[in-house]
Each structure stands twice: as C-alpha cells, then as structure tokens.
Amino acid sequence: MNIFEALRHDHDKQRKLVDALIQTHGETEQRHTLMDELKTELEQHAKFEERYFYNPLMLNDLTQEKARHSVAEHHEIDELIEQLEDTEMSSSAWLVTAKKLHHLVHHHLSEEEHEVFQLAGKALTEEKKESLAKQYNGAMH
Questions:
Q1: pLDDT tens, 13-50?
Q2: Buried b vs exposed e over 34-68: b needs ≥16 C-beta within 10 Å?
Q3: Coil vs helix vs strand at 83
Q4: Is there a smaller number of Cβ atoms within 10 Å at the N or the C end of the chain?
C-alpha cells in the first residue's frame, strides 16, 4: 500500500461520516455520536497526514505551496468543528455550520486527491510512498 491509498481509505470514511452528520436532526444521540466520530477521525487524520505526508512535501519546491494550502484548510476545518461544539445542537445555526463543514471537507479531500496527490506522485519515490503509508497507518490504526 502506498500513502495515497492509505489516505484515500480514510478520506472515504470521513466523507461517509460528514454526509451522515448533515442528515441528522436536532440534539439526538445519533448526531452526538456522528459528531464525536467525525471530530476524532478528522483530528487524527490531519495530525498524521501532516506528519507523514505534508511535512515531506513541504521540503520539495514542487509540492510546498499545495502542502501549505492543505494544512491551512485543516485549520479551517478545526475552526468549524469548534464552532459546532459552541453552538446549540438543536438550533438551525448548528446545521448551517455543519453544512459549511460538509462542503469544506468534501472540497478539501477532492483537492487533495486530484491536485496534491498528482504533484506528490512526482515528488516522492515509490519507496518513500510505501514507507510513509506504513508510518501513517501505524499511527492511525
């Protein structure tokens, strides 16, 4: 497995969670559970993706700008999660923010998979792609 396959596996999980989250209504156990799962998944993924994918890409001129942009989007996602935690779950404002999070997560993952992965594929050796996947998966799972 290479780093792209490892990341895409977790991206699929994040898409399912964020899609399910915006289908929930009111302050329910389901909404709380999905929110907790999504928050944990996004935080862990961002931490280890930055360590085992973006840090090596920051060192390469070809990928440095895209890597910085993606890390900035991780911070935007964190801010939306904080907003959700500070908003009454049963309010309409909560769903508005959840939909912003949904949009940003989908945008971010799509951009990573279609733009960053392309450049990273040129910047990283096959051996590096596999060793990064092992490190990332080891940390994540």
A1: 999 999 999 999 999 999 999 999 999 999 999 999 99
A2: bbebbbebbeebbebbbebbbebbeeeeebeebbe
A3: helix
A4: C
User: Is residue 6 exposed (0-12), middle (13-18) or buried (19+ Cβ within 10 Å)?
Assistant: buried
Residue with tokens 């996004």: 42
87 contact partners, CB below 8 Å, separation of at least 6 = 93, 94, 97
Summarize pLDDT for 74-99 with one digit per residue, the tens.
Answer: 999 999 999 999 999 999 999 999 99
- Cα–Cα distance list, 83 to 19, 41, 59, 86, 100 (Å): 18, 17, 33, 5, 11
Tokens standing for residue 51: 């360590």
